[in-house]
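REQUEST FORM: STRUCTURE PREDICTION
Request ID: SP-0412
Submitted by: Lab K.M.
Chain count: 1
Length (residues): 645
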Amino acid sequence: MNKYFKSLLPILAAIIASCAQNAEIDKVTAQRNYESMQRSIAQGWNTWDTRSVLRHVLLPCGAAIDLNLASADGKRESRFFIGNRAEGAPRMRPGAHSYDGYYTDVTAEWNGLVLRVESAADSLKNIIIITPQQGSARGGKVIVSALTLWDRATWAETKDDRFIFKTMMDSTLKIVGKVSGKIIGSKRDEFVLSADNEIIIVCNRVGDENISAEEARAFVDKHYNSFVNKNREKYGDCYDEYNAMQNVLGWDNIFDPTIRRVITPVSRIWNVGWSNSPELGGFVLFCWDTYFASMMLSTDNKELAYANAVEITRGITEQGFVPNFYTESDYKSRDRSQPPVGTLAVWNIYRKYGEKWFLELLYGDLLRWNRWWDANRRTDGLLCWGSAPFEPITYRWWEFDGVNETEGGALESGLDNSQMYDSIPFNKETHQQMLNDVGLSSLYIMDCNLLAKIADELGQKSDAAELRKRGGEYAENLKKLWDGNRSFYYNKRTDTKEFSDRISPTNFYPLLANVPTVEQAEAMLQKHLLNPEEFWGDWVIPATPRNDPAFADNTYWRGRIWAPLNFLVYMGIRNYDAPAVNEVRGQLAEKSRDLLLKSWLTDGYVFENYNSTTGQGDDVRNSDKFYHWGALLGFINLIEKGFYY
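STATUS: Completed
RESULT:
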């Protein structure tokens, strides 16, 4: 080593140290930006509490107006969830719901009562109007309660027709709630009113709560018209699919006190079912579901898009992967991940808003996740789904059931009971299914390619080179799964080295990786996607081809249509620009929209999955009626019509 080079070593070391320090500073700044953003959206009146859509909460102080119902026969109901299938549960018909609680509208049908509940909020002011609808049973009651939630040092006092919230967070702040209607009785923190008459609840600062019924109605109507008409004007002929998407996301938007974050889980029913802390709240975030939600939210709400992408990524395990699920009390699937679509969401959100701090905040975890797949799920140069044993943390159900077994591997795929994994052996030593999976390997190549672009944006040149090299190696190996005679990619057994004929829409995922040529892409779509014996029909795309015996099962991923499959196939098709491909892309967007609107325009529901023959979502019980990724069916058409990019 010559003297000149030796003299440069201290300078080079200083440069490297400076770069590392600057990277750390950037990460700290990004974290501060995110914390500030979360505080900015955890404000004001909204249906923040996951345990009832009829509970209006003021953040950050945790003051709440809770609405319960009682029928003439003495029955009482306190929990209200959209899509609840339990016997005797209220049927909730969702109306408009802005993300920030500016306007909400829902109709409750229960035990003969039919009541419309509207709210309009502006800063500390919130007006709730409850209106009996035609055919509502007589003699019912509405119980209006003043609650204080989540140990926020707030308390409520009741007097005459009013309640007062006081909080130690701001000793000068007093919120008064005035209840108008036919009051039947009252006791501490609770008013009982006749459900036969209109009820108006006005919450505001002391001295500003006295407004007339006419003024209250005008305030609520103004908010409705402003919110709805603005969106109608913006989205035009695409308003219905936008409305369905925005609505389900708006109603699913909550604040969870266990993590002190605004998040948008898949549905409130799932939150409650997974919760281990009912006194606080409860949430569950699923991996690819939440990334898809963040993309949909980024259509017109940057803050919520960021919040959901960040919170699911922050669920990353000690092993270095984003888990299938995570919830409160450090309960998460430490044996398995889920389809790697995080970088797809993050990159597209960044393209839309262009803020590098968002990338800085997530890049390190996304890179760890990318490397984890290669280190833990690779066999024969491609990836296999898997599930690995670990030391239990919470000793709850999913820390044991299916771990290091076929079931766990299938759950990692996100396609739980897919026929593709019937009879596929599981290697307990490698913790993998013995199947090179076309879908997973393709998603991973896409992840490498997009993460390399993020690395470029952040000046991480060596990472970008690493990612492109690894993605290129997988792309070359993926080509080996192409069957030229059948013009399709097939999963391949790692034990027998034979192709598997059990297919699904995931076999089109090489389009996401840009691996097929244009000619191959056209052949795949013509021979398989547009083939009515396999995937095409009045309603598309079935998770199981129509000529597979499992199609008739019509249960969960066996035979039914799932919006994320439509979405990922659509995004793959977008990588190709040829007349024949573009025509298929347009048809898929139109059919996806039509499937969503079939139920949405009839009864206001967005289903978890749909019948591939009838297009119904409500024909089986294991299709959640208000699950936000169903709205991907409409998001596809919004992208197609230019409302996203």
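NOTES: The chain has four domains: 24-45+241-376, 54-209, 377-481, 517-645.
Reviewed by: T.R.
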